[in-house]
Amino acid sequence: MWAVRYSNPGSIIFIYGPPGVGKTTLLKRLEKQLIEIMIAELDKDLERLPVVTVRLDAPTSGGFDWKEFFKYLLIAMEEPLVDHKIDMSMLKHPHPRTTNSNMQLISSDKPGVRLMRFASEQTLKHRRPLAVLIDDAQHFGIVSSGRKLLDQLNTIKSLADKSMITHALCGTYELIPLRNLNGQLSRRSTNIQFGRYHAENEEHRKEFINVL
Fold first, then answer.
1. DSSP of 113-140, one letter per residue?
2. Where are any strands of DSSP class E within 75-212?
3. Contact 152/178 with Cβ under 8 angstroms?
4. What is the pLDDT of residues 136-175, one digit of tens each?
5. CB under 8 Å to 164, separation ≥6 — which residues?
6. Model confidence, pTM
7. Residue span of the structural domain in which 15 resides
8. Angle at alpha carbon of residue 184, lines to 195 and 154, rounded to 5°
């Protein structure tokens, strides 16, 4: 909660630990608390969202699908017509339907990843959530042969920078290679680790017994 509320705008928080340690439960509780904190503000500003949560799916084939990610992100922000985004700057003619190229642009129901990314950035700026919480973020590291692992991290970094919204990436220890790819980002980001209990540690044993 401290990292989300008091980090610099556009920061990235890495939350990692072994499977089953309670990371997803943590995000659900964090989401609930952020909503409670923002209730008064939301009554004044109906367009604002307290927090946005997205859970990543592992790709069925190839590398991570960014278009699918931006689609889920827009849906989480309650953005309408997610599958019908167009680039308005390309509509140069005062009557766009009179040209074939603009006709195709308007009638297309399959916007590319660039348009989906731009729409996500603009919607984040408009909705102004306190944070974007991304569960199972280790799936960002699944890349196809044509894309470098560093490109994946730079895309998230760019999204956070342009929207000025803190992004919390929550996942397994497979997140660590992503965090270590960029020295500048590693220094600027907040890293939170949730490890397993160690039987040789007396305090850990007491906590484990209390939980049981």
1. HHHHHHHHHHHHHHH--SEEEEETGGGG
2. 131-135, 166-171, 190-193
3. yes
4. 988 888 776 555 777 888 888 889 989 999 999 999 888 8
5. 9, 10, 125
6. 0.78
7. 2-211
8. 85
Measuring CA to CA, how many Å separate 33 from each of 129, 140, 163? 13, 27, 22
Q: How many CB atoms lie within 10 A of CB 90?
A: 12
Specify the CATH number for the domain of residue 117.
3.40.50.300
Token pair in block for residue 117 = 């990314």
Contact 54, 136 (CB under 8 A): no
pLDDT band at 98 (very low <50, low <70, confident <90, very high): very low
| Position 80 pLDDT exceeds 80 | no
The two tokens of residue 75 are 């849906």
Task: Provide the domain count of the chain.
Answer: 1
Distance CA 149, CA 51 (A): 27
Question: What are 55's strand-pairing partners?
Answer: 135
Side chain identity at residue 107, one-letter code: S
Backbone angles phi, psi at 156, to 5 degrees: -65, -45
Angular region, 194: left φ>0, alpha ψ -120 to 50, beta rest: beta
CA–CA distance, 71 with 119 (Å, rounded to integer): 10
Is residue 63 scored above 80 in pLDDT? Answer: no
Task: Give 13's DSSP letter.
Answer: E
